[in-house]
Amino acid sequence: MQSITILGATGSIGKSTLAVISEHPQRFNLFAVTAHANVAEMLSICARFNPTYAVMVDEQAGIALRQQLLEQRSSTAVLIGPAALLDVASASEVDTVMAAIVGAAGLLPTLAAVNAGKRILLANKEALVMSGQLFMDAVARSGAELLPIDSEHNAIFQCLPTAAQQALGQADLAAHGVSKILLTGSGGPFRELPLAELAQQTPAAACAHPNWSMGQKISVDSATMLNKGLEYIEARWLFNCQREQLEVVVHPQSVIHSMVSFTDGSVIAQLGQPDMRTPIAYGLSYPTRISSGVAALDFSQLSQLTFSTAEAARYPCLALAIEACWQGQAATTMLNAANEIAVEAFLGTQIGFTAIAEICDRVLNEIAVIPVSSIDDVIAIDQQARQVAQRWVEHYRLC
Ligand code: NAD
Ligand code: MG
What we know:
The protein is built from 16 helices and 11 strands. It has helices at 12-22, 39-49, 59-71, 83-90, 107-115, 125-142, 151-159, 162-165, 203-207, 216-224, 226-238, 277-285, 316-327, 329-347, 355-366, 375-396; strands spanning 2-7, 28-35, 53-56, 77-80, 96-99, 119-122, 145-148, 178-185, 246-250, 256-262, 267-271.
């Protein structure tokens, strides 16, 4: 029995993880689930899975959940507040932690799991984007086992030789015969929209991803392609890439989840349905395979696979992220923070769609890039960038 904590159990990745676990009750035991404030969803998870702990970050929601579970005579104990996230991520009873909180809020709980030497199923890309080298160093120090869940990184991981998989973040790609990592992305819902119409796009339109069903924040990031930018930074750390070893390819069908190009001219790709249960099942059972509930691809139904490069004018956020990646961790932390503030303002209809990239650019230009040597440094830069971004939200606020 593998004992599991799901950080962000009420979200899109959290629910897909629960779906895979529910197919294998003899293999997986749910130790803890966490959420920000969704009481109804947590009640339903506790009724179905009976975890030992349920953590609510929001205090009022935590009190309400505790009350209702007591009334239902549930044996699940409720813990309240952000510190409890760290406790259930690092508890000695836990083998595997699914890191699926969205955004910077996932950083400290994910690091707690890393420092406790757990198997980490990493969906929360923002944690790695912010803490980069510090995160990978902590993995190496603690002996934690890091498995990428983001579909592209999971695909790349599957395509790599076993020796490179086992030295994740440390392996010299060239020494393993790898010449390039090709990160694929669909281009999002606005790939073919006339550029002049981008500024008027609504949150509903931005969240209507053509292939994937995901949380709101990552859906907006897919529309700006900052998601691919964050993934580029994520790949740089996970696979220890040099600049010339990493490339973004637009592939609208999302059938190929990413590829690895080798020095002998071979290119290995991982293909599948756009369904996160596949990478989640892979992470849960690595190095063996279990069923995920996802059907295999039906090649008689696939008409074509197409590829192109990302248009610079359509996706300014992607170029900002690639630049930030090679500037260093202060820049990637700032970009991530600015984007979180801008996306939240866009989802709240305070700013227009194209203001997201402008706010990210303003923040990157305004704050000096300093060396980062600790998680405290990362958190300080994150906070500073949020304040500056908030000021720019006021500047771009829609009348
Ligand atoms: P989501 O919005 O659906 O769910 C987010 C989860 O985080 C929820 O359980 C929520 O309660 C919790 N949460 C939100 N704010 C919190 C806070 N301040 N403190 C503690 N918990 C908080 O998001 P998602 O789409 O499931 O994405 C989760 C992560 O996985 C993101 O980092 C995303 O980039 C990554 N990811 C998602 C997908 C996908 O298909 N959804 C694919 C690849 C990577
Ligand atoms: Mg992805």
